[in-house]
Amino acid sequence: LETAGLRPETVTGGGTGTWPIEASSGVFTEIQPGSFMFMDNEYGGIEMDIQFQQSLSVLSTVTSDASAHPSWVVVDAGSKAIHPGSKVVSVMGHPDLTYRSGGDEHGIIEGPADVLAGLTIGSILQLIPGHCDPTVNMYDAFYGVEAETITDVWTIDARGPGV
């Protein structure tokens, strides 16, 4: 472009997983690490110095407890709550628990029997999506929470198919 006399004022690029490389390249005047504000389990698994913290979770409620089936509990967050492309969904604060989809409306939480026994019907769990982008696209709003109090509500304007 420059040899043709078209010097761009802005050279943009990069992403959450590669921003340190682009930022230090000297080529870009701005970078676009869009997912940094949420992070997710896929970015959390990248073996580079990512300096952002996880902030996005999906609330779920235990709807069937371990008294019905001692090796798992059921939550009300399936593929309509967390995008099915999310490879590794984790349970915030419970590294010993695992999540798997139980269909459109349900998720299955598995783990040690003593931990599952403490998750009674109505217990709230925060699920961390494996992939934040398509999960965010499924919602109308973000809820900002501090100390278990909703402090902000931000609508998600550009969401859904074809927007």
Structural description of this entry:
The protein has helices at residues 19-25, 41-44, 113-117, 132-136; strands spanning 12-13, 30-31, 58-64, 72-75, 90-91, 98-101, 107-110, 124-128, 141-146, 149-155. The protein is α+β, with helices and mostly antiparallel strands.
How far do the termini sit from each other? Answer: 31 Å
The tally of beta strands, per DSSP, is: 10
Rounded to an integer in angstroms, the radius of gyration calculated over CA atoms is: 20 Å
Structural class: alpha+beta
In percent, how much strand structure appears in the residues? Answer: 25-35%
**What is the H/E string?**
EHEHEEEEEHEHEE
Shape: elongated
Features:
163 residues; alpha+beta; 6-stranded antiparallel sheet; 4 helices
How does the SSE layout of this entry go?
Elements: E1 12-13, H1 19-25, E2 30-31, H2 41-44, E3 58-64, E4 72-75, E5 90-91, E6 98-101, E7 107-110, H3 113-117, E8 124-128, H4 132-136, E9 141-146, E10 149-155
Parallel strand pairs: 1-2
Antiparallel strand pairs: 3-4, 3-8, 4-7, 5-8, 6-7, 9-10
Summarize, please:
This protein is α+β, with helices and mostly antiparallel strands and 163 residues long. 13% of the residues lie in helices and 26% in strands.
